[in-house]
Amino acid sequence: MKKIYFIILVGILTACSDDEKAIEVVTEGIERGAVLRNINRIEKNFVDGDLTSTFAVEIEEQDEEDGALLDFVRVYTKFIDRDLSNGNDSTAEVILSDIEALSFTAGLFGLPRDIIEVSYEEMINAHSLDLDNIEPGDQFEVRLEVFLTDGRSYSNDSGSASILTDFCFFKSPYRYVINVIEPIADADFTGTYFYEIIGGDDADGVPKQGFITISSTTMPNVRTMPLYTDALEFTIAGTSIYPKIYGSYNGFCRDSTLHLLTGPSETSFGQLNLIDDTVFDMTIVIGYEGWDGQLGNNVREFTYRFTKQ
């Protein structure tokens, strides 16, 4: 059963944009527990066929003793085969490594920081995969679990909506999706688009149509657009489109029980033509993993069509 409340929160927290106040938020807001705050996503996806490509993220561990409770961080991985036409090569989650507290260094506010970096080759070897069977659009996952010296541990299944999303201060998703991509030009799938809902659930309260600007990012194939409260980020991988997990729909960082999160569908991955960016479809789940503000009773899935202007 999903844990709606996360024991790390004592009172009401807001999205914090002033990093100078970060340590104050940590010391005043944490009663017990720990998070792995997402400080910087350095590299996001793997490039098809390039074994040297990496996923890398800088994290900061926060606990009630300013990092003194950190024992180690465990890194789990798995592979998700998204093209089942030639069989299913998906793998179960395995432990990739344990990162001991001594590997962390003091960050800006004295809290322990480290960079989690995993290469494409390392992932393939960990799951005994055949590189020829991996296609653009397939995915890997990295999941982190923080272990404390008193025996407690925390991961994405013990977080609240306001902990998991990058929109709020703690931005500790614990889980990261790594897409296998075939790089496209930075200008592709950018510019002004008209959007409309062409399929899915009741669109009450959800923007049904309008004009929007899609922008490129510093990461290949990753695009953003201001569709909801949080800028909706998505990745083009092969002919699939994947919205980022744990996006914020309404930005209610003050009350995690009312916070709606967005993410990808598990069955519909959009439609696009890599050599023609004039029209494409993308499916978005509002209430991702049950984070819909109503205990999983209002999870909805929408398919948008975007037409370039």
Tell me what you see in this structure.
- The chain is globular and about 55 Å long.
- Strand 13 (222-225) and strand 14 form a beta hairpin.
- The chain is 6% helix and 42% strand.
- The termini are far apart.
- It is mainly β and 309 residues long.
- It has two domains: 19-181, Sandwich (Immunoglobulin-like), CATH 2.60.40.1940; 191-308, no CATH class.
- Strands 11, 12, 13, 14, 15, 16, 17, 18, 19 and 20 form a ten-stranded antiparallel β-sheet that branches. Strands 2, 4, 5, 8, 9 and 10 form a six-stranded mixed β-sheet that branches. Strands 1-3-7-6 form a four-stranded antiparallel β-sheet.
Count of the domains: 2
Helix count, DSSP H or I runs of 4 or more residues: 3
Shape: globular
The termini sit apart by 45 Å
Determine and state the CATH class of the largest domain: Mainly Beta
The proportion of strand residues reads: 35-45%
Runs in which pLDDT lies below 50 for 5 or more consecutive residues are: 1-31
Rg, rounded, reads 19 Å
SSE string: HEEEEEEEHEEHEEEEEEEEEEE
Named CATH topology of the largest domain? Immunoglobulin-like
Briefly note the structural class of the backbone.
mainly beta
The largest sheet, given as strand count, sense and whether it forms a barrel, is: 10 strands, antiparallel
Average per-residue pLDDT, rounded, comes to: 89
Percent helix range? under 10%
- Count of DSSP strands: 20
Going by CATH, the architecture of the largest domain would be Sandwich
